[in-house]
């Protein structure tokens, strides 16, 4: 058997594997309807969380916004309420909560939300913090705080709604990760670690809750024009800024629409933009798919996208080495001036 025949055989086997998976009765979820649903959003007072709230209300849902600062929650509530449909029973509630607080307080906050607007149909875990520093400049306490909020906060919020979702056999759970949760980047050792961890949690959770018609969506947005990005950019290492610029900056409303659309369809790995599409194919791993088209994309594009990704990695390495040389030259110049 020559090389061409082997390649043809390999392609046929890939296609058969995809088709066998596609006809499985466990693949495609039922479409989720937002109208009349109760959507709880952590980190809902600003950024992506607030934008998701606006889009959910536009689609007929009631929402509960959760965040740490009451003043910002009140502002967000007033803004989101503008989109409540006239004559509807929609409501926009707020609850002050730190998702990284002790679990009993998190659980109580969710019980309050449910008592006001009914069972949680969709949970959007948008609460999070960033830390953009080289690892040697990051305090251990700061590293632990990022993990506590981004990972543990998401875990606690999800645990607080899961029993009820499973008993009703209905629900959607959204985890806001990041492209830095798909590729480790300079200056994001803490942030990337927390966002990569969400992926492992989500894959395991999805396998557990799929029989209950509950679907998990992990959205991995690029830089998004939010207060967190603005605060982060003030002290960001030069390397991180230069690397991040390659993906551009998206608006929260664009990301929010994609999050809700993909969550309604039950998409596991949700992306934003062309770079997001590339990273989804490279990092698909053993994640679940919901259609033949999605399966075929991954089977046939992983190799090509990996090749493109290598060019990106080479350019990132060049940026890091260039910045290192610049720092060394600046140090030499400063030393010469002082002598």
Radius of gyration based on Cα positions: 22 Å
Kindly report how far apart the N and C termini lie.
Answer: 73 Å
Q: What class do helices, strands and sheet pairing give? A: alpha/beta
Strand content range:
5-15%
Gross morphology is globular
Please count the helical segments: 11
Mean pLDDT: 91
Helix percent reads: 55-70%
For the largest beta-sheet, the strand count, sense and barrel status come to: 7 strands, parallel
Number of strands: 7
Uncertain runs with pLDDT below 50, 5 residues or more? none
Can you list the strand order of the major beta sheet?
A: 3-2-1-4-5-6-7
Describe the structure concisely.
This protein is of the alpha/beta class and 339 residues long.
Description:
This protein has 339 residues and is α/β, with parallel strands linked by helices. Helix content is 57%, strand content 11%. It has 11 helices and 7 strands. It has helices at 3-22, 47-58, 70-81, 103-117, 140-168, 189-209, 227-233, 238-244, 252-265, 273-282, 292-338; strands spanning 38-42, 62-67, 92-96, 122-125, 171-176, 214-220, 269-271. The protein has a 7-stranded parallel β-sheet, with helices on both faces. Helix 2 links the parallel strand 1 and strand 2 (62-67). Helix 2 (47-58) packs parallel to helix 3, helix 8 (238-244) packs antiparallel against helix 11 and helix 10 packs across helix 11 (292-338). It is globular and about 70 Å long. 40% of the residues are buried.
